[in-house]
Design goal:
Number of domains: 2
CATH architecture of the largest domain: 3-Layer(aba) Sandwich
Strand order of the largest sheet: 11-14-17-10-18
Radius of gyration: 28 Å
CATH superfamily of the largest domain: P-loop containing nucleotide triphosphate hydrolases
Number of helices: 22
Distance between the termini: 80 Å
Strand content: 15-25%
Length: about 500
């Protein structure tokens, strides 16, 4: 007897439906074909034990299982339930009338209980697009799948629940999540706020500009000046995720398997802060079975690299292409996977190995040339891709001892959102562009026109600082954002002057 059940394989952040064909005939052998990996091949032992524990059995027949399309590699243990239900239906142990209307997935324990799986959200989206009635999966993943409307999602604890459901002996209640209500209820939650930061008004201003235009930023200052504290608060002034961004970000975290149990939808922008010992693959993604890296997990959010020169140079250099293209392509001999990587890079560094170069009170003890050598750990092309360089100086005691709170994140965010709304209107005809930092050369020419006095100022800055053509474009983008924050249609000379000030590391005197 031939029975078909349906599962799904995740490739990148998209899913492909897998048809599991189970055929039983005379004989006694178990065949599993269709390019399964070792975890899938081991399912026979898990299924056998789970069925016997729950009063069922593997049929004493020849069983052939084909997982189609056969040219797509099937990975992981999530097909256990798909295969088990197919075997039971093919051996007439359960009623198979409704089986082909559902995507069925889950990892089986030896007692028949179900373990959570990865990539549930893209699987649910694909199931809905292909017209499946519902999705049966482990209860720990049910809320995540239920984000997809118009798809019946059944979270189950044990294979016995699935068997009784198809036999009509038990009714399963679909899991329902009010996506919009849950999203808007949690969208503004945060544990930190800019009102807690004393002093550092110039750095707050730079971070506000960075958030308003989606610009990459690097903070340079001595230990204890507050670089990390400020970076952790930048997500509180970024515009809230919209529903589409939340779904896209949740898909990536679902594929990586890092969503919390019983989570539904990510409602706040990601803030990823990897340690400086991270490898190239862990940062950009990849591996034998490709997984999203930190730059993709930071999609629509912030990637914070603390003490930038301490990262391996090769790790930093692999970011150059994603910073420009906002996607990362992982190529292997037989396939290519693309992950989105539209993140805002926030980084910090000490000005020198001892940390006190240019310090107002303490002397730098680094030898001649050491400061420049330390800075050279970050390549020029990477620095060019960082729009804003800002120096962070220690806060004096007079500022630290003030009891009153400073401007809150909410007020700063209001200005950021207003600036972003201007940009949304500006780029309404291009669905791929959302902020000034993403402007192409053509758009810079169109939207970043400057006056003759501004041209003269830029000419002097280019000659004195030795700026590259890319740095020139970055200054214009930042100036455009500053003008948006001022609600100015034109880029004024003052906007350009402020933008030029945010190129500290381009100064010839720095580190010498």
């Amino acid at each position: 007897m031939l029975i078909k059940t349906y599962g799904s394989a995740v490739n990148g952040i998209n899913a492909t439906t897998i048809t599991v064909e189970v055929e039983t005939s005379q004989g006694y052998k178990f065949y599993l074909v269709g390019l399964p990996d070792n975890a899938v091949k081991e399912s026979q032992q898990r299924i056998d034990s789970a069925l016997r524990t729950n009063g069922f059995k593997m049929p004493g027949k020849r069983i052939v299982i084909n997982m189609a399309p056969a040219d797509i590699r099937k990975e992981g243990s999530a097909y256990d339930l798909t295969i088990a239900i197919g075997i039971l239906a093919a051996s007439d142990q359960i009623i198979a009338d409704e089986i082909d209307k559902y995507i069925i997935m889950g990892e089986l324990s030896l007692d028949g209980s179900l373990q959570p799986i990865k990539g549930v959200l893209p699987i649910a989206i694909q199931a809905l697009s292909e017209g499946f009635k519902g999705f049966i999966l482990p209860s720990q993943n049910a809320r995540e799948a239920a984000v997809v409307e118009n798809l019946l999602v059944y979270g189950v604890e044990n294979i016995k629940d699935v068997i009784d459901f198809f036999n009509g002996d038990k009714k399963l209640d679909p899991v329902i999540v009010d996506t919009k209500k849950e999203f808007f209820a949690n969208v503004n939650k945060s544990d930190v706020d800019f009102s807690e930061v004393k002093g550092q008004e110039n750095v707050k201003r730079a971070l506000e500009i960075s958030a308003a235009g989606g610009h990459n930023i690097i903070m340079i200052g001595p230990p204890g000046a507050g670089k990390t504290m400020l970076a952790k608060r930048i997500s509180t002034i970024l515009p809230p995720l919209n529903l589409q961004e939340a779904l896209e970000t949740t898909k990536i975290h679902s594929v990586a398997g890092i969503l919390e149990s019983n989570a539904a939808l990510l409602t706040s922008r990601p803030f990823r802060s990897p340690h400086h010992t991270i490898s190239d693959v862990a940062l950009v993604g990849g591996g034998t079975f490709p997984q999203p890296g930190e730059i993709s997990l930071a999609h629509n959010g912030v990637l914070f690299l603390d003490e930038l020169p301490e990262f391996k140079r090769t790790v930093l250099e692999v970011m150059r292409q994603p910073l420009e293209d906002r996607v990362i392509n992982i190529s292997r001999a037989k396939f290519t996977v693309q992950y989105p990587a539209s993140f805002m890079l926030v980084s910090s560094m000490n000005p020198c190995p001892c940390g006190y170069y240019n310090h107002p009170e303490k002397d730098c003890v680094c030898a001649t040339g050491i400061v420049q050598k330390y800075l050279n750990k970050i390549s020029g092309p990477l620095l060019d891709r960082i729009d804003i360089h800002i120096e962070v100086v220690p806060v004096p005691f007079k500022e630290l001892s003030k009891m009153q709170k400073t401007e809150s994140s909410e007020k700063i965010r209001e200005r950021v959102i207003n600036a972003r709304n201007i940009q949304i209107e500006r780029f309404k005809d291009d669905l791929e562009i959302h902020s000034n930092a993403q402007m192409s050369s053509r758009m810079i020419t169109e939207f970043c026109k400057i006056t003759p006095s501004g041209q003269s100022l830029m000419k002097n800055a280019m000659e004195r600082l030795g700026l590259s053509a890319r740095a020139y474009d970055r200054i214009l983008k930042v100036a455009r954002t500053i003008a948006d924050l001022d609600n100015s249609q034109n880029i004024e000379t003052a906007h350009l002057a402020e933008a030029i000030q945010y190129r500290s590391l381009d100064r010839e005197s720095w580190g010498r």
